[in-house]
Amino acid sequence: MHAKCFRSAAALVCAAGMTVGSFTSLWAADNAKVKNVTSSNAAESYTTTTPIKHLVVIFNENVSFDHYFATYPNATNPASEPKFTPLGGTPTVNNLLSGGLLTENPNSAQPFRLDRTQAVTCDQNHSYTPEQQAFDFGAMDMFVQYTGTGGSGCDYGHGAGLVMGYYDGNTVTAMWNYAQHYALSDNSYNTQFGPSAPGAVNLVSGNTANVQYVSGGSTIGVIAGGGTSGALLGDGRPAGDDCNPANKTYVSFPAGTNNIGDELNNVSYTWGWFQGGFGATSFSNGIATCAAQSVGLAGATADYVAHHEPFQYYPETANPHHLPPTAAIGTSDQANHQYDLSNFLNALTSDELPAVSFLKAKAVYDGHPGYSDPLDEQTFLVNTINAIQANKYWKDTAIVIAYDDSDGWYDHQMDPLVNQSQSSVDDALTGAGLCGSNTAATTQGRCGYGPRTPLLVISPYSKQNYVDHVITDQSSIIQFIEYNWGLPAIGNGSSDAKAGSLLGMFSFTGKAAPKLVLDPTTGLIVP
Predict the structure, then answer these.
(1) Residue 131, in any domain of the structure
(2) Residue ranges of the alpha helices (H) in 289-403?
(3) pLDDT in tens, 434-476
(4) Distance of alpha carbon 156 from its chain centroid, rounded?
(5) What is the chain's percent helix, strand, coil content, to nearest 5?
(6) In whole angstroms, what is the distance from residue 481 CA to residue 488 CA?
(7) Which residues, in sequence order, are bridge partners of residue 283?
(8) Which helix (H) or strand (E) holds 299?
């Protein structure tokens, strides 16, 4: 049962009074290396393949593509909700309208619209095996049976059929407005099936293989085959993190296992992971406590979620005691590039915006059903993007909005089967114990791609009102970082080596895409 719903007064940055300023002329880039400009910000001096000097990845929680874009760009527009009117010439999107699946759906419940008063919903089943079972050999017709979850006060009378619910531009208004004015992908997927931890790890390394059991509860559903080492397919917590919850399974990757942070460190480029609630509220004998909580529409919840912090799984990039920075944000010090989200705002205002920033909202704002919701998520997204666009480095910044997993919400599009797996106790996509038929697959438990999730690129260099159909996955973000900053591929089985490119969502010649200042409550454009 959820607590009484009410609007949280907390906000990241106040958008009131912000105005759209003029842009610096774009550099002619094409495929030439872009040289440094004079600036006190180190990232401006790095040689890049494109004009992008700063990448900000906003990594939110648990949304399938159809859950937010099922009827894009057509909203219902009831009188009581923010009105969305699409721009002329909006491209066709692969959603429930284009497929005719809005009214003739093979699932046992039909898709239905959730309105703004139904923002708080039950959390759906988004585990590795049930998601595959819901896909049913690609028929995409067993979501109610395998991932649907109801509950008192959060399913609005739909029971397990809630899994077929979707929002339109009257609730996820900001997301639709960003899609209208920048670039949206309708063909981007989780690198593999499963919940938050594998999604987060794939974002930073493209590889969940060879995770090691350290301590705690059962490895069933956490490590492939239930063993003590193998692919991470469930929400094992990062071993050694002082702010882990109690009585969970704790895992880590062996020393020397690379992620994109290691690649950036090797060339001393500035970067950071910034997460709400990461900053310790107290220390005792060097051990941190992260006790901050916030209140949103779904009630009160702890700010910090340990298994949403992927760099904590790797010894070389972890900050297990949540130590605060002692040097410039983005550089190497005791914080080890792992920061509280407040440090990102400090970096914005102190000329320290890193080359690469990963942002994770405090839990109440991250969009995860059960303890967050799309309206609180919108508050965080809009306030954050408004602040970035108001910063002087917006002229050479790109923002990517991506998601860790689908939460099990219905999506009609079968994934391309890029990584096969035959874990007898975990896989079920193409039969019992099967994800494909290649029994020679060397790493079990990485069945993927997984469910389709939203991905947007917001930048002066973004194509406008554009829908990209190139197949991409979470590791495509790694690939862009490697391409833009001239880094080597991570290797050792990382999906970055075969990921589709994000470059088609950019235009590096011509007129810049204008700033888009939105209202964080309504998601509407601020006049």
Answers:
(1) yes
(2) 342-349, 374-390
(3) 999 876 667 899 999 999 999 999 999 999 999 999 999 999 9
(4) 27
(5) 25, 15, 60
(6) 10
(7) 288
(8) strand 299-302
Alpha-carbon distance values, 369 to 118, 149, 162, 180, 374 (Å) = 11, 11, 12, 25, 8
Helix (H, G, I), strand (E, B) or coil at 216: strand
CB atoms within 10 A of CB 389: 21
Q: What are the E-state strand segments in 447-521?
A: 455-458, 466-468, 472-473
**Element at 252 (helix H, strand E):** strand 249-252
> DSSP for 372-437?
B-HHHHHHHHHHHHHHHHHSGGGGGEEEEEEES--TT----PPPP--B-B--TTT--SSSTT-BSS
Say which residue the tokens 């509220």 belong to: 281
**Predicted local distance difference test score (pLDDT) of residue 441:** 62
- Mean per-residue pLDDT for 192-196? 98
For the record, the structure tokens of 209 come out as: 């293989």
**Range of 79's domain?**
42-372+390-503
pLDDT tens, 27-73? 223 333 444 444 689 999 999 999 999 999 999 999 999 999 999 99
Domain assignment present for residue 276? The answer is yes
Q: Are 378 and 173 in contact (CB under 8 A)?
A: yes
- Whether the CB-CB separation of 512 and 228 falls below 8 Å is answered with no
Integer Rg of the chain from CA: 21
What is the token pair recorded at 147?
Answer: 């991932």
pLDDT for 9 equals 27
> Is 515 among the domain residues?
no
Convert 109-128 into a string of H (helix), E (strand) and C (coil).
CCCEECCHHHCCCCCCCCCH
What 3-state class would DSSP assign to 173? helix
**CATH at 342:** 3.40.720.10
Closest CA to 342 of 13, 8, 59: 13
CA gap 256, 235 in Å, rounded:
22
Alpha carbons 367 and 363: distance in angstroms, whole number = 8
Structural domain includes residue 358? yes
Helix (H, G, I), strand (E, B) or coil at 358: strand
List, in sequence order, the alpha helices (H) in 309-364: 342-349
Assign residue 22 a region (left: φ > 0; alpha: ψ between -120 and 50; beta: otherwise). Answer: beta
CB contact at 8 A, 124 and 64: no
Does a cis peptide bond (omega within 30 degrees of 0) precede residue 449? yes
Select from 166, 85, 94 the least CA-distant residue to 124. 166
Which tens digit of pLDDT belongs to each residue from 307-329? 999 999 999 999 999 999 999 99
Question: How many domains does one find in the chain?
Answer: 1
358 or 38: which leads in pLDDT: 358
Gap between the Cα atoms of 259 and 488, Å rounded: 11
Q: Give the model's pLDDT for residue 17.
A: 30
Distance CA 279, CA 322 (A): 6
CB 396 within 8 A of CB 527: no
pLDDT band at residue 185 using 50, 70 and 90 as cut-offs: very high
pTM of the full structure: 0.92
